[in-house]
């Protein structure tokens, strides 16, 4: 779900950015998703690679919000 068009589009939209198919694909290429299972829960790690650390953090936070809203 973290890499779905719905979540990516919602994240970009929340930042006031374009949500064209090309924009979604660029974000998908910059996004790394990793999961980790523990005895009591599962963890989801999102990482966005960008030339600007501030923009990477902004996108990661927007994706986190969009993913929580999706669930």
What do you see in this structure?
By secondary structure, the protein is an alpha+beta fold. It contains three helices and two strands; from the N terminus they run ααββα. It has helices spanning 5-14, 21-30, 53-70; strands spanning 31-37, 42-48. Strand 1 (31-37) and strand 2 (42-48) form a beta hairpin. The longest helix has 18 residues, at 53-70. The chain is globular and about 40 Å long. The N and C termini lie close together (9 Å). The model has no long low-confidence stretch (mean pLDDT 95).
Short description:
This protein is an alpha+beta fold. The chain is built from three helices and two strands; from the N terminus they run H-H-E-E-H.
Task: List the SSEs and their pairings.
Elements (H helix, E strand, L loop, with lengths): L4 H10 L6 H10 E7 L4 E7 L4 H18 L1
Antiparallel strand pairs: 1-2
Question: Which structural class matches the secondary elements?
Answer: alpha+beta
Order of helices and strands: HHEEH
Placed side by side, the strands forming the largest sheet appear as 1-2
How many DSSP helices? 3
Q: What fraction of residues sit in β-strands? A: 15-25%
**Amino-to-carboxy terminus distance:** 9 Å
Primary descriptors:
71 residues; alpha+beta; 54% helix; globular
């Amino acid at each position: 779900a973290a890499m779905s068009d719905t979540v990516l589009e919602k994240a970009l939209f929340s930042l006031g950015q374009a949500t064209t198919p090309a924009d979604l694909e660029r974000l998908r290429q910059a996004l790394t998703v990793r999961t980790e299972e523990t005895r009591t829960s599962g963890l989801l790690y999102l990482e966005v690679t960008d030339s600007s650390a501030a923009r990477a953090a902004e996108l990661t936070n927007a994706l986190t919000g969009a993913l929580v809203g999706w669930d």
